[in-house]
Amino acid sequence: MTGILGMSAGVAAALGAAGLGLGTALSVYGVRKLIQIGQFSYHNSRLSTLGNPYVRRDEVLPLLEMDSPVTLAKSLNTDLETGDNLSEFREVDRALYSSLHERMEDLRRDSPSSLRPIVEAYLCRFEGEELKRLMRLIGNRSEPLFPVGWLDSDVERTILAAENIPSALEVLEGQPVSGRISEVIKGENGPTLASIDDAIDRYVLDEIRETRMMSFSSRRGLSTFFDMLCDRYNIHLAVRSLLKNEISEPESPPMIYSSGGTLAPSVMEQIFDAAGLREAISILSSTHMGPHFKDLDTSDPYSFEVALDRMLLQGAVSLSYAFSSTVGPTIRYMVSKEMEQKNLRTLFFALIYGWDAEWTKARLVLEEGP
After folding, report:
1. The pLDDT of residue 118 is above 60
2. Residue 30: exposure state from Cβ atoms within 10 A (0-12, 13-18, ≥19)
3. In 3-state terms, what secondary structure has residue 211?
4. Is 354 left (phi over 0), alpha (psi -120 to 50) or beta?
């Protein structure tokens, strides 16, 4: 039998079924999309409520007026468990690291499933920083432990108890970082603290790179964030190479992380070939990153590290607006939590060791503003 449009009843029925199936699929997709939007909305609203006060000028600058570590600790709106002995910086450090790791673990646990991979990958940054610290303390078994992620207390104790760097690296066999560490062990110059640092940083970037394609709704935001981290790492690498060449025989520049970043390879080559920090800053000033390095004190190498942290923080703030309904607020919260910890460490350190207030202020990583 043929219908009025000249198609058989069977064809018409098939098309009708296909249309119904497509409609059902679109309906299911729409419901899932609404659920995802709801999850993001609740999660992002919660992060906004939690906030990151210790990267804000109005919250941090008054803390420069505190006269002791005790008054500083009492003035903080945080659950920092510092104990009674605040004259010992390692006690403060223990409390700050513990608080940071707990907040990040809370974030990992409470994030929507589509965001959990980037939180877990960013946790690798803290694993990496703790591992770098341990590698510099081999043999000092009394050092405090700051376990995070796979780097638990048992692994930390074993590293500290090692006789030397090679034996400490053996402890890392089978751990997530082992692939990058094995490259260092097999290198022609053998493992050094600098090469181990690079391997750890590359491991972290590897982990974050893998998250970019995991969530369609967050893909652009995650890719932009990954580029920011690559830029920070590559510039840090170049500056470290320049500083090293100033005090020792120049050597071949280290390999940049070429899988991401916004600076052209030719620009990175110019920075590596610069005669010193002043020339490197001049080169960076001609790029879109110029404002972050304006008026930088070239006599203080640490100021470059602070500038890189400020660049990352401002980038995260920008992403929180550009991708406000998806991954942006999570990125801002993670980066800000890291910078909060650095700021509080700086403030406590300044009070314990008698730093000048202006000198301390220059080392704070704060959001832009008056």
Report:
1. yes
2. exposed
3. coil
4. left
Written as six digits, the tokens of 5 are 């449009």
Inform me whether the pLDDT recorded for 228 exceeds 70.
Answer: yes
What percent of the chain lies above the pLDDT cut of 70?
84
Residue with tokens 């796979």: 150
- Of 112, 95, 98, 101, whose CA–CA distance to 47 is shortest? 112
Spatial neighbors of 238 by CB under 8 A, at least 6 apart, are 253, 256, 268, 271, 272, 274, 280
On whether the CB atoms of residues 351 and 68 are closer than 8 A, the answer is: yes
What are the DSSP calls for 68-128, one per residue? SHHHHHHH--S-----S-TT-HHHHHHHHHHHHHHHHHHHHHHS-TTTHHHHHHHHHHHHH
Separation CA 310–CA 368 (nearest Å): 9
Q: What is the DSSP letter of 164?
A: S
* Token pair listed for 356: 């000048």
Domains of the chain: 116-211 (1.20.1690.10)
CA distance 164 to 308: 32
pLDDT above 90 as % of the chain: 57
